[in-house]
């Protein structure tokens, strides 16, 4: 199941990403495990549980709310610009992800694609989360769906410096990088820093 | 024999992969990705052709140096381009070559759309079948540097060398031609036949099904033969789409188009694939088809947003202008100016209109 499908799935995904279990999360919030599990399965998470979870798992609730409700029908012609996570949350998330990324770079020094694949595995194939956390704040993330497959693109704001074509769309989308390609660039940049 | 030597960055594959072997000169990788080492794509098979770039000091390639007949021409055909690069130990060596290439006087821009193509430019073009990239072990033929071995014996200050000297014509070129003859069979670049549907299509065995699940979903080269075989025994829209997707991601846009069309034929309600196809047609310079499809999408766009309508207007304007009818293109620009609420787009459209009016006037003259 995709983690954007429901609030229960998204919270489960967050718990996994924080390397915690449902049991210990429930215990830390003083909620019965069965009650908490039922809330997740039936998507009936109460406001009280959600607020406790936000504190315990360090979740940007506003971002989560928008992401859960924002994915309408989108397409190549009308790409959906996805709202970015709040900066202070991104900074925290980025620290966590970079730790994992650094280890993966060390383990796969010769191959950026292998590092990217392992990174995606570590974050349960959530391309959007990784893009949102890792790419610079001022960049846009676009999404569209094709035959139920989500495709992500990163739009960087720098203008086309060299040769420009008279084609109109150049102005509207400066430089689009496909999601995996964008992750590869982030990994290459991280490699340069290490 | 018309021959040109080019000196480029040393890379293994020249198909866009640079991981671990190349660092941009300055700035962040996001912008540098397209600015630096443009030659990293010189052996990428794009729609059956390879497009070559060499960093030059001049804004034009002096093709008249190949032959005086090209003095007043914009391109020269049937040229052999020898790609050389500086190996850390062996010196400047031949890494590959193009045969029957076209060399352009002016740097050419490649077509891109928001979802297809690569933003790059090129001086040379040849069929993928006429491009030869050597494996690293075979990159042994050294080409001199004029600063070390004397004038006329190798590259000067420019990254390209027309090898016009007597020494080059009598000594270097014959040796290079012999090297080429002996090494044709060793090339490692991808030929178009790798993208084509296999003649014998068998159902997947259990072992192959297991293997298929293990292949990364961005390993399109490995997925493609499986996709063809799966479709042959289950002709669904999803399976046709998978073939289209593989070909699209492998830069075989022309080959992808019939599979996108097949997807729509099998699932006529798939609006998103129709939208992809609008851009695919543009990428392949099939502007009439792109326009027809965009107009159909526009007819059905009553419930869509203003942005959706604006984008289709822009696409149709592009199709008209690039298809050779700037007047019709300008009419669509006027529609944007009249109906759009997007200030940035309006500003840009005004500038585009000025540009296209100039273009139209120069065509009339």
SS content category of chain A: alpha+beta
- Work out the helicity level of chain A: 55-70%
Total strand segments of chain B: 9
Succession of helices and strands of chain B: EHEEEEEEHEEHHHHHHHHHH
- Average the pLDDT over all residues of chain A and give the rounded result: 81
Distance between the termini of chain A: 35 Å
Q: Work out the count of structural domains of chain B.
A: 2
Compressed to H and E, one letter per element, the order of chain A equals HHHHHEHHHEEHEH
Low-confidence stretches of chain B are: none
Radius of gyration of chain A: 18 Å
Summarize the biggest pleated sheet of chain A: 4 strands, antiparallel
Query: Tally of extended strands of chain A?
Result: 4
Which range does the strand content of chain B fall in? 15-25%
In short:
Chain A is α+β, with helices and mostly antiparallel strands.
Explain what this protein looks like in three dimensions.
The complex is a heterodimer of chains A (194) and B (365). Chain A is an alpha+beta fold and 194 residues long. Chain A folds into two domains: 7-59, Orthogonal Bundle (434 Repressor (Amino-terminal Domain)); 80-193, no CATH class. Chain A has ten helices and four strands. Chain A has helices at residues 7-17, 22-28, 33-41, 47-57, 61-70, 87-107, 112-122, 127-134, 169-172, 179-193; strands spanning 80-82, 140-146, 149-156, 175-178. A four-stranded antiparallel sheet of chain A has the order 1-2-3-4. Chain B has 365 residues and is of the alpha+beta class. Chain B has two domains: 3-190, no CATH class; 196-364, Alpha Horseshoe (Serine Threonine Protein Phosphatase 5, Tetratricopeptide repeat). Chain B has helices spanning 29-35, 146-149, 166-183, 206-214, 220-233, 237-249, 253-266, 271-283, 287-299, 306-322, 326-339, 343-364, and strands at residues 3-8, 49-52, 75-87, 91-109, 121-127, 131-133, 144-145, 154-155, 160-161. In chain B, helix 6 runs antiparallel to helix 7, helix 9 (287-299) runs antiparallel to helix 10 and helix 10 runs antiparallel to helix 11 (326-339). The radius of gyration of chain B is 24 Å and the shape is globular. At the A-B interface, helix 7, strand 2, helix 9, strand 4 and helix 10 of A face helix 1, helix 6, helix 8, helix 10 and helix 12 of B.
């Amino acid at each position: 199941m995709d983690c954007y499908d429901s609030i229960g799935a998204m919270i489960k995904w967050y718990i996994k990403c924080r390397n915690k279990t449902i049991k210990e999360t429930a215990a830390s919030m003083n909620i019965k495990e069965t009650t908490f599990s039922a809330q997740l399965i039936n998507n009936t998470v109460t406001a009280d549980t959600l607020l406790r979870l936000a504190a315990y798992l360090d979740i940007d609730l506003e971002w989560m709310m928008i992401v859960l409700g924002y994915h309408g029908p989108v397409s190549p012609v009308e790409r959906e610009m996805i709202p970015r996570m709040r900066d202070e949350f991104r900074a925290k998330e980025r620290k966590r992800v970079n730790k994992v990324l650094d280890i993966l770079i060390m383990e796969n020094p010769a191959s950026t694609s292998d590092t990217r694949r392992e990174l995606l595995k570590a974050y349960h194939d959530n391309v959007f989360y990784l893009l949102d956390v890792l790419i610079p704040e001022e960049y846009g993330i676009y999404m569209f769906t094709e035959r139920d497959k989500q495709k992500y693109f990163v739009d960087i704001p720098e203008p086309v410096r060299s040769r420009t074509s008279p084609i109109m769309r150049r102005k509207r989308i400066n430089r689009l990088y496909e999601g995996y390609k964008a992750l590869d660039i982030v990994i290459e940049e991280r490699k340069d820093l290490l | 024999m018309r021959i040109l030597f080019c000196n480029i960055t040393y890379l293994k594959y020249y198909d866009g992969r640079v991981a671990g072997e190349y660092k941009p000169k300055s700035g962040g990788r996001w912008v540098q990705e397209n600015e630096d080492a443009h030659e990293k794509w010189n052996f990428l098979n794009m729609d059956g052709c390879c497009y070559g770039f060499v960093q030059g000091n001049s804004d034009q390639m002096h093709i008249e140096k190949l032959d005086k007949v090209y003095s007043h021409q914009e391109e020269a055909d049937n040229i052999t381009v020898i790609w050389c690069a500086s190996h850390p130990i062996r010196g400047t060596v031949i890494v590959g070559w193009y045969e029957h290439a076209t060399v352009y006087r002016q740097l050419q821009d490649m077509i891109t759309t928001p979802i297809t193509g690569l933003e790059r430019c090129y001086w040379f073009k040849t069929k993928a079948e006429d491009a030869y990239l050597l494996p690293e072990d075979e990159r042994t033929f050294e080409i001199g540097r004029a600063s070390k071995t004397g004038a006329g014996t190798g590259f000067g200050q420019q990254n390209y060398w027309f090898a016009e000297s007597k020494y080059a014509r009598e000594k270097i070129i014959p040796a290079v031609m012999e090297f080429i003859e002996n090494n044709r069979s060793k090339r490692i670049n991808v030929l178009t036949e790798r993208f084509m549907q296999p003649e014998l299509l068998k159902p997947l065995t259990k072992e192959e099904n297991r293997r298929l699940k293990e292949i990364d979903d961005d390993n399109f080269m490995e997925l493609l033969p499986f996709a063809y075989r799966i479709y042959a025994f289950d002709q669904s829209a999803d399976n046709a789409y998978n073939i289209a997707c593989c070909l699209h991601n492998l830069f075989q846009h022309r080959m992808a188009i019939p599979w996108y069309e097949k997807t729509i034929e099998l699932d006529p309600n798939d609006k998103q694939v129709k939208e992809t196809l609008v851009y695919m047609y543009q990428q392949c310079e099939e502007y009439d088809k792109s326009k027809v499809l965009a107009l159909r999408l526009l007819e059905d766009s009553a419930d869509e947003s203003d942005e959706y309508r604006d984008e289709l207007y822009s696409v149709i304007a592009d199709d008209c202008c690039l298809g050779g009818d700037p007047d019709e293109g300008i009419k669509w620009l006027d529609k944007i100016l009249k109906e759009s609420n997007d200030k940035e787009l309006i500003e840009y459209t005004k500038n585009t209109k000025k540009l296209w009016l100039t273009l139209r006037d120069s065509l009339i003259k």
